[in-house]
Specification:
Blueprint (H helix, E strand, L loop, with lengths): L2 H39 L17 H4 L6 H8 L3 H32 L3 H12 L6 H12 L5 H8 L14 H26 L3 H9 L4 H12 L1 H12 L7 H8 L6 H4 L2 H11 L3 H29 L7
């Protein structure tokens, strides 16, 4: 028997042995694998549209190939680079602010001693997560509307001139950041609270005995202990750095053309292109470009994190 045949036989025997020993585990994970293939991988065949000159009467597989023309059109339209830059800037700012506030909230809530007050505070900061972006968009409109908004009513009441915020693209970066942090900080803080609760209480008791104050305890015990959780949360956010929160941008900005240059991200650009031009090839090209860049970025960042601290890496 040749060496190749021996290796094949050994591999086959190993698989049978693995199945025999762990078949309940294989049966348990089978539905998840099937659902993943059906819901996550089969729809990826639609990515072929990015390389096709799509005609409705011919279907995806019958339409002629167009090479990279759809990608070329995305960038020569003058919008590709701009919406990419907007997406990265907004997601970077939103990640830093929402995660930073979440860590701060988690530390504050963990340091509270009155249990009833802790529960009430935690519920209040978690509440915005359940408010839909449609309602948040209504809040924003009622605050910043030029004629009847709360901001201009206040300015008029103190004798100041009203401002048209919807014609000031520069301020929307900060408005979106504020509402994004308000909505997500409480939700994300739950994960950090769970991480803080797993900190060894003996370390905290030892620090108290040694005379450490609250700031020293947070700086030298709490934050170092939750560092792997912070790294994983940031890596997961980095993996989505080219995916804007479509609902947030669409419900807050809507179809206000004055703000597109400052607030348009890839997701809103793709949606608007699809609804106005119906160009499925170009929108598929933009989506594929977005996914590939996300994969490259998360791989590079994860490799750097793994090099610095293997336990903090995502994979």
């Amino acid at each position: 028997m040749s060496q190749t045949e021996k290796r094949e036989k050994s591999k086959s025997t190993g698989l049978r042995k693995e199945w025999k020993n762990n078949y309940p585990l294989f049966l348990m994970i089978a539905p998840i694998c099937i659902l993943t293939i059906v819901l996550m991988y089969l729809p990826m065949s639609g990515l072929l549209l990015a390389f096709k000159d799509y005609h409705y009467n011919m279907g995806i597989f019958g339409s002629p190939w167009s090479g990279l023309d759809n990608f070329r059109f995305f960038f020569i339209s003058g919008k590709g680079l701009q919406v990419t830059l907007n997406t990265i800037v907004y997601n970077t700012i939103n990640t830093i602010t929402s995660q930073g506030l979440a860590i701060l909230l988690a530390i504050i809530i963990s340091e509270m001693t009155a249990k009833r007050f802790t529960r009430v505070t935690q519920s209040l900061v978690f509440l915005p997560y359940f408010i839909s972006w449609i309602i948040v968009g209504t809040f924003v409109y009622n605050i910043f509307n030029f004629e009847t908004g709360a901001l201009n009513n206040f300015l008029k009441a103190i004798g100041a001139q009203p401002v048209n915020v919807y014609s000031m693209p520069g301020v929307w970066k900060w408005i979106i950041m504020a509402f994004n942090s308000w909505k997500w900080a409480g939700y994300n803080s739950v994960i950090y609270i769970a991480a803080i609760n797993n900190v060894d209480p003996q370390c905290i008791e030892a620090a108290d005995i040694d005379g450490a104050n609250i700031w020293q305890r947070i700086a030298h015990i709490t934050i170092p202990e939750i560092k792997p959780t912070i790294s994983i949360m940031l890596l997961m956010q980095v993996g989505r750095i080219l995916r804007g929160d479509f609902q947030m941008f669409y419900q807050i900005i809507g179809n206000n053309g004055q703000l597109f240059n400052a607030t348009d991200v890839i997701d809103t650009f793709v949606f608007r292109s699809l609804t106005t031009s119906g160009d499925l090839g170009m929108t598929s090209a933009a989506t594929l470009y977005q996914s590939v860049l996300c994969f490259i970025i998360i791989t590079i960042v994860n490799a750097r994190v793994r090099k610095a601290d293997e336990e903090s890496a995502l994979f």
